[in-house]
Structure formats: C-alpha cells, structure tokens
Design goal:
9 strands; extended; alpha+beta; about 20% strand; two-stranded antiparallel ribbon; disordered C terminus; about 300 residues; about 20% helix
Length: about 300
Amino acid sequence: MRSIWKGSIAFGLVNVPVKVYTATEDHDIRFHQVHAKDGGRIKYDRVCQVCGKSVQYSDIDKAYVSPDGDQVVLTDADFAKLPAAEKHEIPVLEFVPSEQIDPVLFDKSYYLEPDSATPKAYQLLAATLERIDKTALVHFTLRQKTRLAALRVRDGVLVLQTLLWPDEVRAVDFPSLDEAPAPRPQELKMAETLVESMSGDFDPGEYTDEYQIELQKLLDEAIASGTGKVESAAAAEPAEQPDAEVVDLVAALQRSLEASGRRDTEAAPAPKKAAKKTVGKKAAPRKAAAKKSTAGKTATRKGA
C-alpha cells in the first residue's frame, strides 16, 4: 500500500505521527466505452464552449452557478484562503460512546500506521481506545476538504472513518408508514421465531460476490474463444417470483419457517380459512431447528 497523507494525531499535548492509507479497495471489473461498430475506444476531450478549443487540465478553474444563474469562478488561491483544519494535524475533539454514532454517518475508512521510530504514543492511544470502549472524534483536511471523522481501533491498528456532516443525511418522511397498521402479536412472535432459526455469527468470508465471479467467467470464456465476444446463448426462463404483496403474513411466515427446516405452530395458530374452520386442534410438537448451512451464501454488491 502507498500512503496518501502524512501528519500527526494531537491527543492533548501528546503528538502521534501517522501515515494514512486507504483501508478498502474496489474489486469490481472495470470497462471502457468503445464504438459498437468497430470496437474503437471512445476518448473524451475537454472543450471550451466559448472558444471551441481543447483546454489542458492545468488551465481549468472551478465555477459555481447560483440558483439565479450567476456564475462565480474560483482559483486555487481562492480556496487556499478558506478556513480549514491544520493540513498535517488530526486533532482529537472529544471522546464519545461508540453506540451514539449512527452508522449512516460513516463514509470512507483509512488505516493509520505509526510514522515514528518509537511508536509508543501510537500504541498508548490504541490501547486506551480499546480499554474505554469509546470513539474519538477528530477532524482533518484531505484533498482541500475539512472532514469530521471517527478514530477507533481494529485489530490493534488505528482506523480513521470519515463521517458525513448532519446536513448530508437526507431526512425521510413516508406517509405510508404513518398509516400502516401495527403488526399483530402472532405475526411478531412468528417473525421472531424465523429470525432465531436464521441467526448465526457474522463471518464475511462466508459470502461471495457471485455477480463478479460469473462476469469474470463470461470474460474468460470470450477470451478463450479468440473472438473477443461473448457467444450468444439461449435465454434462461425467468424464475417464478412470489406475489408482490403478501396478504396473509402469518401464512407467509409459516411457509418461511417450513422452508428453513423449522415448524413452530406454537408461535401462532394456523391461518383460518373461510370454508373450513378447525377448533380445538392441539399444537404440533416443536421440532428441533435444522442445522443452518453456511455454504453457498451469496451477496450482490450494491450497484452491480
């Protein structure tokens, strides 16, 4: 990995020199655009709409257009005048309970490596954060933008997670939720039973991105054929989809329990039918939950 930023964490009067590395990487297969007729690659040119000439990136400034259509052009010198955190310092603002930070605020993650021959201060800060079970709120400047971030520990390494500003999280107002009826007790009980039957410890290694795997297989087969194109195949018939709206939640939950290998008729009575009514029927004995198989779990990446 290559560090993208160097500086120090200001922990009171304690200075912790660090290097910053991007903690995640995108493994999605990348494509470029080509001309469908001959496969020629499409290139883009920065052309000025006034003079019609191509413009080098070094000659480009940034402009803001107001809602009324007024344009303001800013140069790099103008941006340098704006208030920002110290360019090479990450000051700790305060320590807060970790559960008080809403996960929706988390943005990007970065690893911090000690940038000192004697990383004692780094180890002290990491050990302290682990012992107090709190998250340090910090702010720093990266790519000309001041960012609020959470500083925590992962496997003994300090991790910096940038946070969205409160006004960057959209407010939601769904009238349909206000008008929705509350779940019935038997529905809640069966749903909890279904959750229990599907529960386990989280292991990200159990999940694979099947879309990327199949896409790579498709590309490898096209390369092996020597044509550079994917051979056409018969379209698979679409799988039968369940109804868009489940009218009877209890019946749907019961079928879900049966599919998961567990039938719990004590959790809720079987749904009543108009033509036949069963009275006084004893509940079937509870069956032991089948062992949950973790093989074949897949997760589709967002935006895939």
